[in-house]
Amino acid sequence: MIARPDKDTPPPTPIGRVVATELKPATPHQFHFWTATETSIGIGAIVKVGGDGTGEAGRVVYGVVTDGFAYSDLATPLHDVVGAEGDPTRAAAPTTRQEIRYWTAAVLRQTPEEPLQPVPLGQVYLAADADVAQALRMDTFLYSATPTAIPIGLYTSAGHEAPVYLDADFLLGPEAAHLNISGVSGLATKTSAVEFLLGSIFAHFPAHKGRIAALCFNVKGPDLCFLDQPGDLSDEDRQRYQRLGVPPTPFERVRFYAPLKADGVNLNTLRTHPDLVSDVEPLTWGLQEVVDFAEVLLNKDDIDAKADAFIDFLRDRVLGRTFDDGFGGTHRVQTFADLDRLFRSIFDGLEIASGGRSGSDTWRTHHIATIRKVRNRLLNISTRCKGLVTDDGPSSDLPWKEFTDRTVYVIDIANVDPLGQDLVFARVVSKLREQLERRELGVDAVVVFVDELNKYAPGDGSETYVKKMLLDISERGRYLGMALFGAEQFRSQVHRRVVGNAGTQLFGRMDMDELATPGYQVLSPATKSKLATLPIGELMVRHPHFTQPIFVRFPKPPVLRGRDGVGRFPPAADVPFEDAVVRQLVRLDRRVRPNQVKDLIAEREQDDVRRALAAVRHTRPDDVLAYFRKVLGSRVVPAPALPQAQHAVPPLNTISDEPY
Amino acid sequence: MTWWQALIDAGAVPAAFVPPPASRAGLGSDIDAGTERADIVEDGELQAHPVPDRSAARVPAAVSFLAGIERWSVVAYDGVVQIVSAYVAAAIRRRDERGRLHTTRERSRAFAVAPLQRMKPALRQRLEQMAPDLEPMDGDLVEQPARYLERVESTVRRVRAGIERELADACIAGLPPEEWLVLDGLLSRSPAVARHPRALGVIKSHGAQFLEGRGLERALTLPAGHRTSVFAVRGGHTRTEVYSWYLRLWPWEGNDLLYGLLRVEARADRETVARATELSGWLWAERAPLATPATRWDRLLYPLHNVEEYLSALAPRQPQLRRVSRLPKTGT
User: Fold this and answer.
1) Does A93 contact B289 at a Cβ distance shorter than 8 Å?
2) Which end of chain A is more exposed for a tag (fewer CB within 10 A), N or C?
3) Chain A residues with beta carbon closer than 8 angstroms to that of B309
4) Strand pairing of A16-19 and A60-72?
């Protein structure tokens, strides 16, 4: 933490002097100064102007360098040519021309703040720690009785490093919230910055603001799969951690979730190394979990008023209830398999009722075409998202209402079908919002990290459910305690209300084409140039308390980077069905003997085994093997199939053939 | 409040005459007028010698450059008596091994110039009270304003030459071995400087003619990159004999006879003759960088220009500001 300014500290040495001309005057928001030719300051440096000696003693102005110029007393380049007689090799002259290093700085803060006046033509000093705190208005939340400072990195200039803090009230709510980070891909800046910042938040989130957790969607590769494993840190990084007061250790509590693969037993993640896979919880949902988010899975053409009404009917009147289909059958629909049986019963009933004649084409006021369309779409979900959505059996979900403080929940959906990614995102965020609203999540605030906002919340394109949800978080999340940390490559192509609502914005190295877009017009050419060449580990920060963008360095995150993690913990190959079942049971109970399991499931239907396995995961009994044996049931020798009348189900119409 | 404002408050009439640029700063110290006697000390008659190309020139590692400026303007009238505010300054800037110039010595003087005996007693008393530095003048030319101003100009120039000489003497007294001093103007004003083995005077104006006949023609039509034979300069205003030669920095063809023409002064010594070509090569190499935007860049060495710019930056601005407008003021 920055020490309060000491009045006995000797005055620093000036490094420049403010100059103002009629053409380039000093104003309340900008000033110009010159320095020695050999100077350590550069673009992004924070400087202090003292009014002493200008008749404005006591007035102090803080500014950040936004542009720099160098020129000599050469009147025209032609004179240099003449002096060198047209020969560049003769350009070296005995005397070096008088040069100037001339800088433009944007005012960060003036003290006193009223009356707001042009910057005095005083001497310029490099900002020390306390000056940086003053300049960035960090003193208000750094030195208050209830500090809310979250370290974001170190401001570095001229060999000097000063911690820069964000205000938790403006990063995580309720004053402002959300963070957006942009930068080109492949430099590990965006993910690393978020990893570091989450660690910093966990270390510094003020106690009076309650408990906090983070939920991260891993949408590409193994990026977030090793947050609990230590990475390699240099001594320099460790010093930076010490300077920032953040422990250089991986996250203590991380819970990983990943859907299953289509086989229903192997995990669909890159964290499948035998040493680590036991920490990964399967994420599987059934009909109950999915049907509320049918809108996510059905495109806009599907969701007309009739289909919507039928889905509502199913949700309100059918699912989870004992339901009479009107043709003599009673159903209790809890799984996709149950739902399929209900649909078949309806189609058969309508067929029989019509006696082969046309005319009986409605059921409970719903047209058969609508029923067929909804049936097609819903049952297709379990096919397209196989592994995430199960046809039957209990679900395996996040620990709703039991979120714990300072815990990172990673949901790995990197290898999931885009439809499944949308479903996961929509449902998880909806549940978070719902439980935060009721204050029953288990924590008071949640950071939701979503990468690839270009994909999920594009500025153009159709209004998807996910985009609407992201907009909702952006605009209402801060009241609930939900902060969206979004990352993308091209900020200009993300929905402007998503980026606009982000109180804090981070910029890594940017593409020049991106910097040429209107959103970056407020930046000086020099700042853009710096952004285009920003090294790994350096960011430009915009925060409500900072009146100008500030460049900071952050240490390498103390966790194993995705690609390093895959190297150190290579993903295991998919194992055979029996071995996968054994692995999951052993994870739940180490006393389970593989041979016992293999004997149990030998010659059993895989669907039965999956159902039993899901039941075990759901129940988590003390004696896993016994419970597994019980739910699997005894082996029954299949009876020979009896001839029975086959009621042909008419083929389902395609959408284009619908009668209306 | 400045002293002339106090004077105006006491009844003097405000004035705003600033001499035209041609007669102001930069010309003073190296004004070289009249016909002087010169004896050729190298060759039988004046010859043109090529100087080494820039790449072959031996430029001393450390050189100090001395130049000065002067500014003056009429600031008030007591009747027809013109009261002048003047400012002169001189500085030495040393060139380090990286080619950068750093000020090592400087001196300035801001003073009033007035014929006290011709002023009204009240204004004279006020001037004597308020002006921190006063340079009295004879009052015999008061009734001839133009000639009076010529005398003012020569007075100011004399004061400037005085501080330049003081600086040169002080510099020469402590000049380290192998280090040179280059003066903007006559070397011969100070005996100590004129006799120093590592002091050069660079004269840009050529009011004084030392040569005649064929020698004069050779000197004034000297090709670029050539020097004349060395000749001795004595008599006239020079109190100490020095050796001198002409050096052409830029081709004069297409311009005028004096374009790019320098006259160099060095101590009167056989070694000077022996090293004239080498020293000329050095000064030839000093053509770059160009001393633009100075109007006399063709014969003004950049380091000397830099000294003048340095002094100009430090000079008080009042005389310049008063030249902004001479239109009659309105009633408001």
Assistant:
1) yes
2) C
3) 73, 98
4) unpaired
Token pair of B266, please?
Answer: 């060095």
Asked if CATH classification 3.40.50.300 holds for the domain at A162-283+405-567, the reply, yes or no, is yes
The predicted pLDDT at position A422 comes to 86
> Can you tell me the distance from the alpha carbon of A263 to that of A577, in angstroms, rounded to the nearest whole number?
8
pLDDT in tens, A36-77: 988 888 999 999 998 776 667 788 999 999 999 999 988 888
Over residues A440-451, the pLDDT tens digits come to: 999 999 999 998
Q: Judge whether B146 lies within some domain.
A: yes
Q: Which of A73, A84, A94 comes nearest B59 by C-beta?
A: A94
- Which candidate from A76, A90, A94 shows the least CB-CB separation from B286? A94
Question: Residues of B with CB below 8 A from A76's CB?
Answer: 292
Query: Does residue B329 sit within a domain?
Result: no
Of B54, B95, B293, the CB nearest to A95: B95
Domain that residue B226 falls in: 3-321
Dump pLDDT digits (tens) for A492-543. 999 989 999 999 999 999 999 999 998 898 899 999 999 999 998 999 999 9
Min Cα separation B80/chain A (Å): 38
CATH code of the domain made up of A1-75+96-135: 2.40.10
DSSP secondary structure string, A80-147? HHHHTTT-GGG---SSPPPEEEEEEEEEEEEES-SS--PPPS-EEEE--HHHHHHHTTTHHHHSSSS-
Query: Considering the domain boundaries, does residue B278 fall inside one?
Result: yes
Q: Which chain A residues contact residue B59 at CB under 8 A?
A: 94
Tell me whether residues B292 and A98 touch, CB distance under 8 A.
Answer: no
Q: Is residue B326 part of a domain?
A: no
CA-CA distance, B193 to B183, in Å (whole number)? 10
Identity of the residue in B101, B288, B293 whose CB atom sits nearest the CB atom of A93: B288
Domain with CATH 3.40.50.300 in chain A: 162-283+405-567
Separation CA B83–CA B135 (nearest Å): 11
Q: Is the CB of A73 less than 8 angstroms away from the CB of B98?
A: no
Q: Distance between CA atoms of A100 and A119, rounded to whole angstroms?
A: 21
Residue intervals in chain A for CATH 2.40.10: 1-75+96-135
Best residue in A19, A21, A95, A96 for a mutation probing chain B (most B CBs within 10 Å):
A95
Q: A152: part of which helix (H) or strand (E)?
A: strand A149-157
Test B302 with A95 for CB contact under 8 angstroms. Answer: yes
pLDDT, averaged across chain A: 86
Confidence (pTM): 0.80
Measured between beta carbons, which residues in chain B are less than 8 angstroms from residue A91?
Answer: 288
Torsion of CA A126, A131, A134, A137, to 10 degrees: 60
Distance (Å, whole) CA A297 – CA A290: 9
Chain B residues near residue A75 by CB distance under 8 angstroms: 292-293
Distance CA A627, CA A591 (A): 13
Question: Of B100, B287, B306, which has the smallest distance from its Cβ to A83's Cβ?
Answer: B287
B23 pLDDT above the threshold of 60: no
pLDDT band at A249 (very low <50, low <70, confident <90, very high): very high
- The closest alpha carbon to A60, from A139, A137, A113, A2, belongs to A113
Q: What is the ipTM of this complex?
A: 0.82
The stretch A291-313 carries a mean pLDDT of 76
Closest Cβ–Cβ partner in A75, A79, A98 for B306: A98
- pLDDT of B25: 41
CB B182 within 8 A of CB B171: no
- Contact (CB<8Å) A98/B288: no
Q: Does A333 score more than 90 pLDDT?
A: no
Interface of chain B toward chain A, CB-CB under 8 angstroms? 54-55, 59, 95, 98-101, 285-290, 292-293, 302-303, 306, 309
Number of domains observed in the structure of chain B: 1
Q: Do B292 and A75 touch (CB under 8 A)?
A: yes
Q: In the predicted model, is pLDDT for residue A650 greater than 70?
A: no
